């Protein structure tokens, strides 16, 4: 299983200049490749291959006066920029062809020096090295000071250097973990109902309050954004104000991520199986609750549960989003009429009194257990069979024909 380990780095002023040069060269190569493929498509020519892009935009471009400065950075950085372009095109084609699940992926766009995030990547071919003194040695950049919060489980296969909108630098190592990290089995399983009033309600009755990190920091962010709006565009003070706003948002995101990591780790450690409801976060993000939905961060939390379950030998599953977990009585199975959000408790005709969220979590647990017991790897539903041509195609005169059946005219 491949994982990423992120650490903060503190480059010197000279190293920041070298990193900026590497960011710029990678951005130029990416944009040149995108421009060349767009021009070939508009001219009706064939798709420019990856090898052709590498030869024309890196090997031959370094010999020209206009792109001679590409030789000042590591060639691996430039090759990985083209690899990112190829990945973007593959994702786009897979999306429009229906081979990729989720939302339709847009075609690649040009990168800008004003983008809030700049990144480059080094692979093993670049011979980067973690030194004995804890520094990270990168080709043509130097030895970076890394703030190690934990040790790497094995030798990394690649490392990416990232600069965010707040001006902070990070390194992200890609490592491959072994399969012997499974936790000791436990007997408990839990269903999780995600919400806004309570971030998570468990089937055992535990309620986790929603921290609402963005709401708590809204007053400070509002003052910083007001101060930013008063600065003259293009001035140095406006640039400093932009960084202050970015740092405030980064603090909110970091706090939320840290809290979700701790909660997801506790759930995976204490339960053998975790079942959640499949929510349409994209759709909920377009409603009047959009700010609260994005502040909760359901998608990132469920993604943490999924990869941690796979890493530590636990079971994670999603229940269908149309499953009536709230309206179904967990005692008798009766499905009631739709209820508004202000109804927090309700009584079933069978005599059971339910808390809305706890009842939903219990139903999610039962549905998840039923799905896991029914999963034997067999095809439950028949596959799609193409219809014969005479059956799928309507005769052109069929809409105009009139026939009589038992005295009734059918058109």
Structural class: alpha+beta
Average per-residue pLDDT, rounded, comes to 88
| Number of E-type strands | 16
Low confidence ranges: 376-385, 387-396, 398-411
Shape: elongated
The radius of gyration computed from the alpha-carbon positions, rounded to a whole number of angstroms, is 28 Å
Helix content: 25-40%
> So how many helices?
11
**Strand and helix order:** EHHHEEEEEEEEEHHHEHHHEEEHHEE
Distance between the termini: 62 Å
The side-by-side strand order for the widest beta sheet comes to: 2-6-7-1-5-4-3
Approximately how much beta-strand content do the residues carry? Answer: 15-25%
The largest pleated sheet is described as:
7 strands, antiparallel
